Amino acid sequence: MWAERTSHFSLSGIREMFALTKPGAINLGLGQPDFDTPAHIKEAAKEALDRGYTGYTPNKGFPELIDAIVSYYEQYGVQTGQEQIICTSGGSEALHLAFEALINPGDEVILPDPGFVAYLPLTLVAGGVPVSARVSADDNFRLQPDAVADRVTDKTKALVINSPANPTGAVQRRNEMQGFVELADDHDFYIISDEVYDKILYKGKHVSPASIDPDRVIVANSVSKTYAMTGWRLGYTIAPAAITEEMLKVHQYIQACAPSISQKAAYAALTGSQDSVRAMVEKFRARRNVVMHHLKGIAECATPEGAFYVFPRFTTSYTSLELTKKLAEAGVIVVPGSAFGQFGEGHVRISYAASHENIDRAFQIIKELVA
């Protein structure tokens, strides 16, 4: 009675944990900043409403917003133009467009494992074949070019990279990005680079593979995480002009355009003061340090260099799903590592997009349970 493609994957394991949330539970499973959208961004949205920006926009988005994205990516050494950008309904649509424009039935897509929960379903919806490339705690969960090279075949069409990474907080180095681009050039495949956490960094500098070879890379980004705008649903793609035209065909028929008011708000976000971003990142850094202190002695955990997650391995007899259900019963929501791929088993994802007080309370419960 329904399309077979949807039978090959289930609802997000993250959402399953939210369904277990009881009144009063401490939610450390959230994948969104717990901060309000900065005031100047909200004011821009109010002004847009008052000025009547409530209709359709150009399919690709307002030209001034696209110009702002061009300028934003200059800081990463990416030279792009209006013909290479589409404004989308969140980073999720940006990823969807990339998969739909690139993947034919039977094409292989190399995915980081553990990796963000959307990559495998998006591969399957496009008719592709997901291929896991393991990321290891021994490398601080950074995907290694050698691990990718081992998975490349003559059917490989795309490699997905996520830096900073969800669920691990790993940040790829420039030499690693260079290695991925060389593999793509040598074997004629593309890189889909998920960069939605680009500004949430505690060490090093964000590297976009599009700064190395823009002809091989589709960038998916959004204002959601950086500016605490998850509900505004405004993302964008940066890609070679020919691929952008193919993605635009899909975008036109499934979305028409990104939300008009959100586009005006995103313009204010990208061109306005960045003080709120820096303040938010410093608060996340402080929380990360609190979490790492709590984990000392009770779990193995690589120190995340970006995003707002830790991915510890606890020494218990429970599977990751069993452990998260036990914690949910005790009043703490986290996400099982198995939701992020076969190599996530044994880990849990903990988000520190929560107050210091709630983090401290949650870890009192976690320590009692794992003990």
Poorly predicted ranges: none
Mean pLDDT: 95
Give helix % range: 25-40%
Q: Main sheet? A: 7 strands, mixed
Number of helices: 12
In CATH terms, what is the fold-level topology of the largest domain?
Answer: Aspartate Aminotransferase, domain 2
Our estimate of the beta-strand percent is 5-15%
Strand order of the largest sheet: 2-8-7-6-5-3-4
Span between termini: 48 Å
Global geometry: globular
The CATH superfamily of the largest domain is known as: Type I PLP-dependent aspartate aminotransferase-like (Major domain)
Category from helices, strands and their pairing? alpha/beta
Radius of gyration: 20 Å
CATH classification, class level of the largest domain: Alpha Beta
What's the helix-strand series? HEHHEHEHEHEHEEEHHHEEEHEEEH
Compute the number of strand runs. Answer: 14
Number of domains as seen in the coordinates: 2
So, CATH architecture of the largest domain?
3-Layer(aba) Sandwich
Please name the defining characteristics of this protein:
14 strands, 39% helix, Aspartate Aminotransferase, domain 2, 3-stranded antiparallel sheet, Aspartate Aminotransferase, domain 1, alpha/beta
